[in-house]
Design a protein that fits this description.
Helix content is about 40%, strand content about 15%. It contains 10 helices and 9 strands. The longest helix is centred in the C-terminal third of the chain and has 25 residues. It is globular. This is Phosphotransferase family protein. InterPro entries: ACAD10_11_N, AGP_Transferase, Aminoglycoside_PTrfase, Kinase-like_dom_sf.
Length: about 375
Amino acid sequence: MATAPRPRTTTRDPQELGRRLTGWLDARLPGARVTGVEVPASNGMSSETLLFGLDHPDASVRACALRLAADPAAYTVFPVYDMARQHRVMRLVAEHTDVPVPRVLWLEEDPTALGAPFFVMERAEGRVPPDVMPYTYEGNWLHSASDAERAHLQDATVAVLARLHDGFPAEEAAFLLPEGEGSPLRRHVESQRAYYDWVVDGLPRSPLIESAFDWLDKHWPADEGPAVLCWGDARIGNIVYDGFEPAAVLDWEMAAFGPRELDLGWTVYLHRFFQDLTVSFGQPGLPDFLRRDHIEARYAELTGHTPGAMEFHTLYAALRHAVVMLRIAYRQLHFGEVRAPEDPDALILHRGSLEAMVRGTYWS
């Protein structure tokens, strides 16, 4: 983990993007100057982020962030990058709730300007729990914090989910439903099956992922619960914190209309992913942080909704993460960054955890 090569995240030149962005902005703020263009070290492998300053006397925002759809030529992680959808979700969240989201400014759906659709938002200031090396490792601000400070961050993060799920009018999120028939949860799972089929098209299929889909079918919750707006990528690595308080909630590309437990399961499992890896490399990690029982209890206190079918939803989160990881691994193979193993399941970093979930031994 400490020595694995970081996958290539972009094929674009940030300085060239900055020059083209200046030309695009000039039509909206004549004479505007783009300054300090940079690509953050934590840039993702789906849509890309560009940070820049905006110098213009009429600019209401000076520090900006631009989210740019992935380069179609760069073996994208997802088949579709709907920037208008993300822009709409963030605008509606700001309109209907007090969840801190960056103020969205411009949306550009024409790919001519920068090579792909994008939107510009106000840049959030603060600090983010790192993914590389993960915050469960020693040597970062969250690991070095006190137990009380981490507990505060945990409770404040769960409160973000509670306020989003309770505060956003459910009917306003129905546009996020995938096409098809059945309940919101059924449609969500079927959309993930379709994504998996896209990932393995012409490539080796994953017996583990397919066994996990079979497990879902056999353990479907009797009561799916009400559908709400779900953030989708609900993890602390997508929040900018001011001290230990959430200052900005980022990355809404996976937003969905479904049970609250979609977010809760993702929050629980994405921490377990880092925690399990850290333990496997001989470090204790943060075993008392973001525990499933603590998250469930705190969420119930805040909302009156007792989370249900959480083994289903944490396994589903691990399954969804496995599909993404398989795509990223095939992307690395495409760029010659790794060699293909005989067993495609070996490309799934949390293989052991997902196998234990399917066996029913993970939480025992």
